[in-house]
Inverse folding.
């Protein structure tokens, strides 16, 4: 779903698509690992967790586990909720709630 | 789970427990109705949705339905996430994520 972007990091273009982690139906620890890798391995200053529907609670779990267990210096900078329109298999549109949790380190 | 409080409203004590709606495993519309009643029937200026675990996504659904369908003037004032410790039936403690979404009208 995410577009592939260049790995080059410039000061002008600080946030890349790599800093966005899409949370789905795997266990929270999969996403925790992705977040920690993004901060510690790739040197991101801000990581955004995005989730829709049922995965919203997994995104919150992920943020809380990162913050409480793995990176005590991580903070929740911002949380936004929204509604997205999705087309199901039968071709009908339905609305699904979404969340974006942005985590930062000091 | 919520304690019963007096119905009297004073200027000093504006937010009562009535303004907190605990979201559980009913369909979102049950909680949407509770929120709309709280704003329109009881005259609250701020309503807080609280949920834990899987119900977190239902709380987000509720806020989004209120905002998009029933009360276009309602805004998400603040969202906070946290972790609560709960004791299960076997007496063991486990952690569960929680969310608080505060909705206000202008």
């Amino acid at each position: 779903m995410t577009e592939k972007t260049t790995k080059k990091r410039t000061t002008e273009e600080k946030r890349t698509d790599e800093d966005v982690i899409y949370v789905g139906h795997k266990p929270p620890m999969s996403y925790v690992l992705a977040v920690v890798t993004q901060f510690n391995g790739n040197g991101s200053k801000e990581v955004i967790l995005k989730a829709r529907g049922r995965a919203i609670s997994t995104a919150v779990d992920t943020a809380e586990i990162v913050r409480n267990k793995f990176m005590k210096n991580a903070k929740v900078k911002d949380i936004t909720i929204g509604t997205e329109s999705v087309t199901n298999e039968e071709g009908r549109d339905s609305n699904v709630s979404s969340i974006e949790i942005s985590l930062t380190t000091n």
Remarks:
- The CA atoms of residues 60 and 68 of chain B lie 12 Å apart.
- Chain B has two helices and four strands.
- Chain B touches chain A through 20 residues (CB under 8 Å).
- Residues 17-104 of chain B form a domain with the Translation Initiation Factor IF3 fold (CATH 3.30.110.20).
